[in-house]
Amino acid sequence: MSIDNNIAIDIQNVTKMFGEFTALKDVSLDIKDNEFFTLLGPSGCGKTTLLRLIAGFEAVSQGAIMLYGQNIADLMPNKRPINTVFQNYALFPHMNVTDNVMFGLLRLGQEKTNAKRRVSEVLELVRLSDFANRMPNQLSGGQQQRVALARALAPSPRVLLLDEPLSALDLKLRQAVRLELQQIQIQTGITFIFVTHDQEEALTMSDRIAVIDGGRVQQVGSARDIYEAPENKFVADFIGETNLIDVNVSNLEAGKGSCILPSGENITCSAAKGARAGPGHLSVRPERIKISVSGKSLLEGTAVRHIYLGTDLHVEVKLSTGGNVTIRMQNSTQIQIPDVGQSVGLDFDPSSARLLVD
Amino acid sequence: MANLPKTTSKGSANTYDGFGIPLILPAWIIIGFFLVIPVAMMLVYSFLTKEFRGGVIWEFSIGAYDQFFFYRGLFGDSPPTIEWTYISIFWRSIWQAGLATFFCLIIGFPTAWFIATRTGRNKPIWLFLITIPYWVNLLIRTISMKFLIRDNGPLNEFFLSLGLISEPFHIINTNFAVQLGLFYSYLPFMVLPIYAAVERYNFALSEAAADLYASRTVTITKVILPTVKPGIVAGCILVFVPSLGAFLAPDLLGGAKNFMIGSLIEEQFKGAAGNWPFGAAASMILLSLVLIVLTFYARSQIKDQL
Amino acid sequence: MASKSLDFRHFTGFKSLTLLCLFLLYAPLIIVMIYSFNDSNSITRWDTVSLRWYYDLFYGVDAPKFKAAAINSVSIAIMAATSATIIATMAATAMLRSGRFRGKSVSFALINLPLMVPEIVTAVATLIFFSAIGFTTGYLTILIAHIVFCIPFAYLPIAARMQGIEDVYEQAAQDLYATRFQAFRLILLPLMTPGIMSGFLLAFIISLDDFIITNFVKGAGVETLPTVIFGAVKQGIKPNIMAISTLLLVVSVGFVALSYFVGRIGEKANPTTTKNGD
Hints:
The complex is a heterotrimer.
Chain A: E1 7-18, E2 21-32, E3 36-40, H1 47-55, E4 62-67, E5 70-71, E6 82-85, H2 97-107, H3 112-125, H4 141-153, E7 159-163, H5 171-188, E8 191-196, H6 199-205, E9 208-213, E10 216-221, H7 223-228, H8 233-238, E11 243-253, E12 256-260, E13 266-271, E14 278-284, E15 289-291, E16 299-308, E17 312-319, E18 324-330, E19 343-348, E20 354-356
Chain B: H1 20-45, E1 49-50, E2 56-57, H2 63-69, E3 70-71, E4 81-82, H3 84-116, H4 122-135, H5 138-149, H6 154-161, H7 175-200, H8 204-211, H9 216-244, H10 248-254, H11 261-268, H12 276-305
Antiparallel strand pairs in B: 1-2, 3-4
Chain C: H1 2-6, H2 14-35, H3 52-59, H4 63-97, H5 104-116, H6 119-132, H7 139-164, H8 168-175, H9 180-209, H10 212-217, H11 225-234, H12 239-269
C-alpha cells in the first residue's frame, strides 16, 4: 500500500453507531496536508461525531482513520498527535493562561524552561502575550478562544481540530477571528479541520469543504465547486439559496442534460453526476434570474411578495405554471422593481442552471 | 450535535471507563463487610438461644420470636396466648412516631411554606436559621430539652415566678415529653423536603388556575397541594422512620414508663440481664417495619412518575 | 380583592407559626448556654456570671475523664472522616465518571444503605458481628463502625461537586497528552477540592456527634464525648454538663458552617465553568 504523504487524514469507510442509532454511515474522506478543511452540515448531521472520532474520544464501529498513512483508530486520544479547540474552549479553570497553554508540553515531557519559551511564542502568535498570568474567568470570550487555540497549537500537532470555535462569538468578532484563523493556518502550515454549521464561515475560510447530512458525506469540494456545481438537492439548498423547479431530465451526456421548462422552452445545462433521466429539479440561484427585457421569457408569473434585506430585495414570484421562484435584485438597481400583483417575465442564462436529482 | 457531546449514554460520563469496579470496591468492602454481613448475622442471632450471662449459644431456636409474640411459648401445654407486652411496646412506638410526624407536619408545613415564599435575600437567611439547631449534636439537643422541662427546670421556674401556676408542670417522663423530644429531633426533616417542593412550585400556575375561574380553596386543593404532595410525603417518611427507632428522646425524656422499641432493644444488650437473640429479633422486626414503609414509599414514587 | 385571593405567599398565622417554631428550636439551646455561665452550684438558681464550670471541665475532678473522651472522639473523627472521604471520592469517581459497570445500580443503594437502616439496628448488628468473630470491642470497633456511616455523608457533597464539573476538562487534558491518571490528578481532583473538603468536614462532625452506635460498640473501657456526657446525665445534670454541651454545640455549628463556607468559597475560587467575561 503506497503511503501518500500529501494526505494528512484519510478516513476510510468509517461507520459509527450509538446503540441503535447510526451517526455516520460509511464515510470516506481524505484531507490533504496543510489544508484548511471544513466539515459543514446542519445540527445532528454527524460532523462533530466525525471530529471526535479523529480526536479519539469515540471509537469507530467500523473502518479506519489514517494519519499520514498510519491507522490511529485504535489509539487513545493522548497518543494521537492531534489537538482540539473545543466549542466552549474548556480552559482549565484552576490554571492561569500560561499553565493552560503549557499543559500539553509538560505532559510530553518538555522541560519547563523550554516549555515557557514555546508558550510565549504561541501567545504572541495569537496576540495574547499581555494576558499570560490571567485566570480564564478574567478573560472575555474572544480571549478565551485564543487561549484555547494557543493551547492546542503549542505542542505543534500535525492536525488541529476546531469544533465550532466561533459559534459563541458575536458577529463582528467572528469576522475578525475568521481572518486570524486563516492567517495562523497559513503561517504554521498545520492541517486544520474545522467544524461548523455556518455556511458563510465555511465558504470564506476553507480550502475545501465536506458537506455532511444524515451521517453521510453529500459532497466534497472547494467553495466554488460546491456553490456553482452542487451534486444534489441537499447541497444546492443548504449552501446559499436556490430555486428548484420540477422538470423532467433527459439527454444526459458528458455532464450536461436537457429539460423542458414549464413554459415549453427546451434548455440544456450542466447536470449533477448523479442525475438520471426522469423526474428531477432544475436549480437556479436567485441572483442569476433577471427580469425579462424582451417580450419572450423563460418563466412567467406574478410577483407576490417583497422581502427587504438592506442591500438586496428578494422578490417572490408565483409562476403561472405553479410553484414559486425567488429572484434577487439589488436595491441600487436601475431596473424597475415589479410591484406585488404585477405580472413578471423572468430570464436566466442556462449555463448558470444545473440539473439535479435528489 | 452542535455541542461537543458531554456524555455517551444514560447521563454518565466515562472518562475512566473500565476503572469502575476497582474504584467502587473499597466502598463495597467496608459497607458490605461491616453493615450488610452484620445485619445478616443479626438475622442469624435472632434464631439462636440466649446464654445465661448474655451472649449466645449456637443452638437453633425460635425462642426469641416466640418470647416476643407469645406468652408461655408456642409449644407449651396450654394453647398459646399472645404476649402483649412487647407488641404493645412496638405499637406504642408506632403511635408515638405517628404523633410526632403529625405534629411536625402541622407546624412544619406552614413554616416551610412561609420560608419558601419569602423573597430574595431573606429566604436563605430564614433557611439558615431553621437548620442551625439541627447541626447541634442530637444528644445535646435532647439534654437541653430535658433540662428545660424538668420539674425544677427553667420553664417551670418561669411560670412559677410569674405566679401563673402554683405547682410545677410535670412534663418530664410523660408521653408529651417524648413527643416534644421527637419533634425537636426531627422537625427539620419535615421542613426541608416541603420547602424544596414549595420552592419548585411555580406560583404562576395558581394565577392560571384563577384565570380559569378556580376559587381560592379549589386552587389550593387541586393545584397547589398535589404539586407539593411529594415533599410532604418525603418529610413524613423522614420523620416517621427515625422516630420509630429513636432511643435518646424516649430514654432521656420518657423515663421507665415510656418504653419504646429503641429502649427495649438497648436493654437486651446491657450486661447480664440481656437477651441477645431477643434483642436481635426485636431489631429484625423493627428493620422489617422500616423496610416495609420504605418499600411503600419507593413504590408510590415510581407510580407517581408513570 | 382579586389580588388577595391570588396571593398564596401570605397566609395568616404562618409567620407566627414559623417564629414559634424557631423559638421552640432555639430556646432549649440558648438556655443551656446561658446556664453554663451560671456560677451557682445548683442548676436552677441563677447566681452571677462566671466561667467556673468551664474551668471545672478542664481542671476539675471529672477533667481527665472528659479529656480522654475528647481525645478519643477527635482522633476517631479525624481517622474516620479521612477514610470515609477517600472511599467516597473513589466511589463518586466510579459512579459518575466510569461509564457502566456490573453492579452499578446496586452500588448506589449500597452507598446510601447506612442512611436507611435505623441507627439502633446498625448498632445491634455491628455489636453482634464483632462478638461473633471474636473481635474485642473498643477503640477499633468504634472507628470501623464510624467509617461505615460516614461514607454516605462524605459522598453527598463530593458527588454533588463532581456532577457539576463537566467531563470536557478531562477530555481536553487527554487531548493534550495526559494519561487518565494525570487527568484525574491534575484536573479533576483540584477542581473537586471544595467538595472533598466539605465532605470531610461533614463526616468529621457526624462522627464526633454519634452516640447510639458508639455506645453499643465501645465496650467497657473506652468513652467518647457523647457517651461520657450521656453517662454523666444519667447521674443527674450537673453544671459542668451544661458547659461541655455548650462547647460541643459551638464546635458542631462551627464545623458545619465551615463546611458550608468552604464549599462556597471553593466554588468562587475554582469555578467549574469559565464564564465569558463579556
